[in-house]
From TrEMBL:
GO terms for cellular component: cytosol. This is N5-carboxyaminoimidazole ribonucleotide synthase. Residues 102-285 form the ATP-grasp domain. It is an enzyme of class 6 (ligase). Homodimer. HAMAP family: PurK. One of its GO terms (molecular function) is phosphoribosylaminoimidazole carboxylase activity. ATP binds at residues 98, 137, 142-148, 172-175, 180, 203, 255-256. InterPro entries: ATP-grasp, ATP-grasp_carboxylate-amine, ATP_grasp_subdomain_1, PreATP-grasp_dom_sf, PurK, PurK_C, PurT/PurK_preATP-grasp, Rudment_hybrid_motif. One of its GO terms (biological process) is 'de novo' IMP biosynthetic process. It catalyses: 5-amino-1-(5-phospho-beta-D-ribosyl)imidazole + hydrogencarbonate + ATP = 5-carboxyamino-1-(5-phospho-D-ribosyl)imidazole + ADP + phosphate + 2 H(+). Keywords: ATP-binding, Ligase, Lyase, Nucleotide-binding, Purine biosynthesis.
């Protein structure tokens, strides 16, 4: 069994590590000579649109998947001429364009923030007048808080337009949410769907800082599962899908979806019976989907810019240390630490210790 992965970052790295016990050989294509997946699998270094490099990948793959949605559609269309691509071309096209994504959600009557396509400053002004506080975003290639400006005043609007006006834009109503959650689902070729427990997430400056399971709100789990089921079915999806939500005190509103394994699912490596990475592989290769049940309480700390001390982390009961082999840079995801414990009180104490190491609150 052989899998080609478009992208060679930490998600490709963790997919490859999860593939080894299943007897799956992975090969990645990434334009960076520093792709961190190269420590654990073969990485072809070339532009994603390089047809010779793509041919090399395809010669060594039964199926092809992605570790990022920021992949040129032309690349995936080339892949599908000779190999099956998962999750699907439509899923990728929808998720990499904020406007298409919002229109897709609206077509399914799925709650999301009010939005407007922005093609001119006049259109932006009109949208801002109707929406009130809003957020201006690039339609493509925005992630971890990049390519967006919060609009709470006319000054913000002028600044946002000057900063982003050369790109295709969308403006969305700013949601005053109580908290953020995400749901990770997996759908196989037989159309069977399984869900992990709902995850509570905390972002700072647009970057995920920590995730925690369980949320212990069964009505929200049910609500989220209904929404994600509709998305998976409409896209005829195969593999793992993550959907991020805002909870405004009344209902869940979809923020965005990611057609791949996701940062908020890293806790599953130790905290679930089967990780998101393994289940993505199982779905692609037609293997039985593994149990998505949580083992106990889980907490995941994202390590941004620098890694905490490995000795201090591993002195905390239930801690597991993951570094990605990347050079330290400001706001760069360098690794993560997970906590897993079935003892509630011990988990709370360990969580406080880990949050202190990460300077989180």
């Amino acid at each position: 069994m052989k899998l080609g992965i478009l992208g060679g970052g930490q998600l490709a790295r963790m997919l490859s590590l999860s593939a080894h016990p299943l007897g799956i050989h992975t090969i990645c294509l990434d334009p960076s000579s520093e792709a961190c997946a190269s420590e654990v699998t073969q990485v072809i270094t070339a532009p994603l649109t390089d047809e010779k490099a793509l041919d090399q990948l395809l010669e060594n793959a039964d199926y092809v998947t992605i570790e990022t949605e920021n992949i040129p559609l032309s690349c995936v269309e080339y892949v599908t001429k000779s190999k099956t691509f998962y999750p699907s071309v439509k899923a990728l096209a929808v998720s990499q364009d904020r406007l298409l994504e919002k229109q897709f959600l609206k077509s399914l009557s799925i709650p999301t923030a009010a939005f407007y396509d922005v093609s001119s400053k006049e259109r932006l002004q009109q949208a801002y007048s109707e929406l009130g506080h809003a957020i201006l975003k690039t339609r493509r290639l925005g992630y971890d808080g990049k390519g967006q400006c919060v609009l709470k005043s006319q000054v913000d609007l002028e600044r946002g337009w000057q900063t982003l006006r050369d790109q295709e834009l969308i403006v969305e109503q700013l949601i005053p949410f109580e908290f953020e959650v995400s749901l990770i689902g997996v759908r196989n070729k037989e159309k069977k769907i399984s869900f992990y427990p709902l995850v509570r997430n905390h972002h700072k400056e647009g970057i995920l800082r920590w995730s925690e399971v369980p949320v212990d709100k069964p009505h929200l789990q049910k609500e989220a599962e209904g929404i994600v089921t509709a998305i998976l079915t409409a896209l005829d999806y195969v593999g793992v899908l993550s959907v991020e939500f805002f909870y405004d005190g009344k209902q869940l509103l979809v923020n965005e979806m990611a057609p791949r394994v996701h940062n908020s699912g890293h806790w599953t490596l130790e905290g679930a019976c089967t990780s998101q990475f393994e289940n993505h592989l199982r779905a692609i290769f037609g293997l039985p989907i593994g149990s998505t049940e949580a083992i106990g309480h889980s907490f995941m700390l994202n390590c941004i810019g620098e890694m905490p001390s490995i000795n201090q982390c591993l002195n905390i009961p239930g801690a597991h240390y993951h570094q990605y082999g990347k050079e330290s840079r400001p706001n760069r995801k360098l690794g993560h630490v997970t906590l897993v414990d079935t003892n509630t009180e011990r988990f709370r104490k360990s969580k406080q210790q880990l949050m202190a190491l990460g300077a989180l609150s």
